[in-house]
Predict the 3D structure of the following.
Amino acid sequence: MPLHRLALAGALLLATVAGPAGAQGRPHGGKLLLTGGVSSIDGAAGGGLTPWALTGGYGAAGELGGSAFATRVKTQDYGLGAYGAALAWDDRVEFSLAHQDFDTGPVGGALAGMLGNAAFNGLHLQQDIAGLKLRLAGDAVLDSDTWIPQVAVGLEYKKSRTGPLADVLTAFGAKDSGTDLYLSATKLFLAPGILANLTLRATKANQNGLLGFGATGHDGYRLQPEVSLAYLFSKRLAAGIEYRSKPDNFRDNAALGAGALKEDDWADLFVAWAPCKNFSLTAAYVDLGKIVPGVVTRRQTGAYVSAQLAF
Amino acid sequence: MNRMLFLVLLGAALLAGPVQAQTAPAPADDALYQQLGAKPGLVTLMDDFMQRLLADPRMNPFFKDVDQVHVKAQLVDQFCEVSGGPCKLKGPDMKRAHAGMDITRSNFNALVEVLQQSMDAQGIPFGAQNRLLAKLAPMHRDIVNTP
């Protein structure tokens, strides 16, 4: 069964069975509101673009927690849909699955013309992501008398399916799967109501993996910092910024013109609202920089909306 | 690079709001105590808090059989002390006071939730709530005694 079917099945299971079942008898939902973060586009609990050291859902020590999400991003020329689920045990180990579908907009048509292959028209790039996160130490929320953050390590195994583009990416030296490794530190400064996260990600991914992993001449892991900063307006409402740096493995690739595949960092401004522990909504303004500037020269900015069910 | 600068400025703006709000009035040490309504405010808060604890199915088992008047008086003294008021909590330390009960992280958080509801009901501003919780939260190390 493909990973994205598994992710969907997991999400449905969480939403329909595990939540209500957990509500009967066994202790559950012991974490405070919003302290499981939201669902990142890659499935792990965090901000929108980056994983945090928090585990997904509301399971405290000795409890099971979980979340399922659907996210939609729309920029001037591109669209991204993602969905998935995460399960966490003991507020310590988190397992997540996600599926992404990227609509390449005008790029597919342009490639069809350049390469004389109609199969590129309406090109969608997809990937499945399986994530594992382990909280190592600290309590981001309750240890409010120290600067010591909650720290977690994680990995995200990504497998991309790029259709007719696969042969092109192979020729450019990119593989169709890769594993990101990350270290996250998350701290809620409770008195001022500010949450900060720093994630260091070792990755080979091109555009998060949607354009494969590595490239000719740039095939090694790169260490990329990702930063989130949020202000709590109330228990239910947080707003902030994120910045996610990315490798630029295709920077020397000139097959489609010099700098045609250059890759920019990502950033967003977000608002997250959780009316209750079972549901949250996140809206953001995203700036994904230029994506395949050889074909589409303008910056890609736009809207991000994500809904999450959790227990 | 422009974008990085933009983000840094935004971050600074986000941080500056609360930081300025904290430092501008140069509050006295008992500013939080005053925001909680001083002694009368804390007494009202604890009356409401105890009612909510008894009404909450997660918390009721911990409080239904205690000397509620005594516990409320202890809590008033404790909150008064940690918020900078002229009180001193007497009695056993937090660890010993809770040693007779099995308290999980989940129980601790549930009490925080009930306290937040109570503070909301008393109209205590969110910022003051968080400054108080920041003083109380580290006590989880002594109070939570069951994995």
